[in-house]
Amino acid sequence: MNHCAAVLALTAACAACASSAAQAVQPPASLAGYLTTFGVDRAARSFLEEPLAWDDAKQRLALRVVTRLQLAPAERIVEWEGESVALGQAPAGILGDRLVRVAGRAVFVAPADLPTDDPVAAAMPRAELVRLLTPDGRVVDVLASAVPRDWPRWQTIDEPAGVVGLPLTLDAGPAPRRDGAGSGWPPGPPAVLLAAGRVAWHPDTSLGRLGMDYGLFDTVADGRPLTAADGDAFYATLAAVGNGAAEPPTTAPAITDLIDPAQRWFSRHRGDGVTVAGVCRRATRIDIDDPLRLRQLGADRYWELFVFVDTPLLQVHDRVHDTYPVVCCVRELPSGMPTGQALNERVRVTGFGFKRYAYPLPVGADGGGEPQRLEVPLIVARGVQWRPSAPAVRDRATPPGLLMPAGLLATALALGGWWLWRRGHRRTPSRRSHLPDRVRLPGDGGGS
Fold first, then answer.
1. More confident residue, 387 or 251
2. Which residue in 45, 158, 313, 352 has a CA-CA distance of 20 to 30 Å to 288?
3. 104 pairs with which residues across the strands?
4. For the chain, which domains are there?
5. How much is the mean pLDDT over the chain?
6. What is the pTM of this model?
7. Are 409 and 282 in contact (CB under 8 A)?
């Protein structure tokens, strides 16, 4: 079992144990019932509406609501968000047990104090207060547990944002103060204070305009195997590209930027447009059986392509290559395009950079006894431009040494100290290396 398989197997085992322990007390299906079960129902929350100054007691109660929303089962959250109403269309009795949707501009973010004497609220890693301005000029404050990491704190910002949250009170809310010098929270109370699990960020980029929440990228880490922490961002990206064709990137990164860890391209440009062109050596259908992912994507599968692209001469360890694989996860394939292994199809993929996927090689698999790690770029796209070619033509850019007899695709990349390339008229044959049979992603129905 590879590392990703072990992690996800452990995650599944923990989830199974939690499920068994919770069978005796299943959370109610309705939001009102759920909040009542945990002591933050409408009656308890009425304390927040009392005409008193915002104090520690109110802060503690508001954070308990945030915590309970964060801990609610994912399938319940999806249901409750589906029943939400836009803030401008909410009834007069907005302070009920129904979520509301708000879209606007985030203008200020500050950390919220977590009480140490409340084990429920103190269990949150962090909580923050975000001020939003709606298009009609209303001020909305949001107390949330997840706020985009790239937003500056304690200073004015202007970022497109959205939230689905529970109204807590009107014309009142906390006003954080910064320790020491510096400005504090903007003056004036909000029209409404919301509690929410997260605040979404939709920047004015090709992917942001397709509906991607860039805040989900905060849990994606490069140079590691795929883990459950990548799942929400991956499927959100896959869902976003289904909303429209990707715009051609104005300045596509060089292939060496994508595959060289020292460039740190993904950490600085995650979600940016990428175009790769090369030879597709494998196209695998990935079936999805998770009900939440099915609902999110509106599809029961996606396709995983291994595309070999031309590169300068690369020497990794003791091997030299002039071609390199890129993993492309796409929602659809052109009609008639072959699938399976041992392909030789010219393709061009325009999508969005997701991460550098790292895979540990078996000890000794690369000609030595020391453990080694390989990395490949992972790109998410809606579709593929296919350029059919005569089956008898063999592509020069993919030497036989990069393909394993069992059909495993090749790659050659490792962390730290590996990067060395040179240009010249002589090309050295590559030796074989190893890659997982397929790059399995959290919740794709196939396990990992």
1. 387
2. 352
3. 161
4. 27-201 (2.40.50.140), 206-421 (2.40.50.140)
5. 78
6. 0.78
7. yes
